[in-house]
Amino acid sequence: MTDRDSAAWWERVAEGRLEVQECSRCGTLRFPARAFCPRCRAEDWRWRAVEPVAEVDSWIVERRTTPPTTIVRVRLARAPHVVMYGNWRAEREPSPGERVGAVFEDGPKVNWVPRP
Amino acid sequence: MAKRLLAFSDRTALAGIGYTDFSKNSGVSTLTLACRAILAALDDAGLGVDDVDGIATHRVGDSVPPSTVGPALGMGAPTWYLDQFGGGSVSHSVVGQAALAVAAGLAETVVCYRAINARSEFRMGTAASPGMEAQYQVPYGLAQPLQHFAMAARMHMIRYGTTAEHLGRIAVRQRAHAVKNPRALMRVPITLDDYLASRWIAEPFRLLDCCLETDGACAVVVTSAERARSLRRTPVLISAAAWGGGDSFLSGASPADPTVTAAAELAPRLYGQAGLGPSDISVAMLYDCFTYSVLVQLEDYGFCAKGEGGDYLEESLPFNTHGGFLSEGYVHGLNHVAEAVSQLRWEAGDRQVPGASAALSTSQPGYVLPATSALILRRDS
């Protein structure tokens, strides 16, 4: 399901690296991977490693799967405008605003666990 | 009447509405559904196929285009047509664009239709969200509009204390309306306990938070106000039509706050066109793919303050008097427009809101494609 803009991002995830694009002109971090900076419209960018820590915005518990699947919506702690989705990897439900850490799983996928 | 901001306002009218039966299995093709609804709408208006010079629809790979429907009905070459990509969020923009075409003189009479076998052929509820964001969601099991709405509903609950009982009240009220609607698929009354006991689909949504996947079609006839006055039905004027608005909730440089929909940006433009405000609206048809979308639109269309949708339900204006998508059937928006027309003609039978003079009718408020559309309709005076 990748596209020409996103393939390199997914390759990094497969290697266990959480990186987002950083605009070479204005420094804006952006995700998903796209050619243009939506703030300054520059096309030049570089990969920037980001701390794999986020806060929980919301979640759903999908009950039509066995077992149920919990899907979280998170925002990166160091780039709160970056929204990501992933599966919740804990026995309990998340709580609003909870700090979580990324775990990289086969797929590749970025999933989320409570941060100790 | 307040001053209108656009020359477009009130220059066009809805002159006819038509439906097929709503069912879980129509047993006929989507093309058949489209033709039946169009012929019913023309008959309602007292017009024939030869009177139509424009044809419009919207679809997401799930229906038949105007280029098939027109010839199938022996319609002459249209002078204007629209084959809009999109689902619920564009349902009302199709009518708005037809009205613009008529107001601009590109067409005299446009028929707008939406036809789907959304239960027996194309399971609307399991359709993936369109767009390039899907690759960041589908691997985690996040693939359906229902799930995005549920995610937003949870945020509203976290931030504003909205409860399951609030959502349930919407389902119960709309079912009570559907009991009075012979067209409705679901006509057995439900209680709040029934709602709370219905099975989980994707928490915080239960089965009774969700609309009905439906086989059916609906059509409306748009013509000039002047022409509509010469036809047999009470004209329903298109006072405002707006579309657009909203940022993506799913991605981007600054994803929007999911507790505020595209409707919040659109509403002032819509009311401004009509020269009306929320207090002038007699009855609202609010896009109810899920209970929550009603609650958030009550806020974003200005009937109450942000976060107060749950409590406002106690005193709210009448909404979704046909039972809505939750209980009448889900034809993706045009059945909202048609019910608004019935209300404004004072032909809604047991469901009639006494003296209804202006109606708001809205589309999916932007959780899938980041935009919405809506109409304000007015009884011709």
From TrEMBL, chain A:
<feature type="domain" description="ChsH2 rubredoxin-like zinc ribbon">
    <location>
        <begin position="10"/>
        <end position="45"/>
    </location>
</feature>
<dbReference type="Pfam" id="PF12172">
    <property type="entry name" value="zf-ChsH2"/>
</dbReference>
<dbReference type="InterPro" id="IPR012340">
    <property type="entry name" value="NA-bd_OB-fold"/>
</dbReference>
<dbReference type="InterPro" id="IPR052513">
    <property type="entry name" value="Thioester_dehydratase-like"/>
</dbReference>
<protein>
    <recommendedName>
        <fullName>ChsH2 rubredoxin-like zinc ribbon domain-containing protein</fullName>
    </recommendedName>
</protein>
<dbReference type="InterPro" id="IPR022002">
    <property type="entry name" value="ChsH2_Znr"/>
</dbReference>
TrEMBL record, chain B:
<feature type="domain" description="Thiolase C-terminal">
    <location>
        <begin position="256"/>
        <end position="377"/>
    </location>
</feature>
<dbReference type="GO" id="GO:0016747">
    <property type="term" value="F:acyltransferase activity, transferring groups other than amino-acyl groups"/>
</dbReference>
<dbReference type="InterPro" id="IPR055140">
    <property type="entry name" value="Thiolase_C_2"/>
</dbReference>
<protein>
    <submittedName>
        <fullName>Acetyl-CoA acetyltransferase</fullName>
    </submittedName>
</protein>
<keyword id="KW-0808">Transferase</keyword>
<dbReference type="InterPro" id="IPR002155">
    <property type="entry name" value="Thiolase"/>
</dbReference>
<dbReference type="InterPro" id="IPR016039">
    <property type="entry name" value="Thiolase-like"/>
</dbReference>
<dbReference type="Pfam" id="PF22691">
    <property type="entry name" value="Thiolase_C_1"/>
</dbReference>
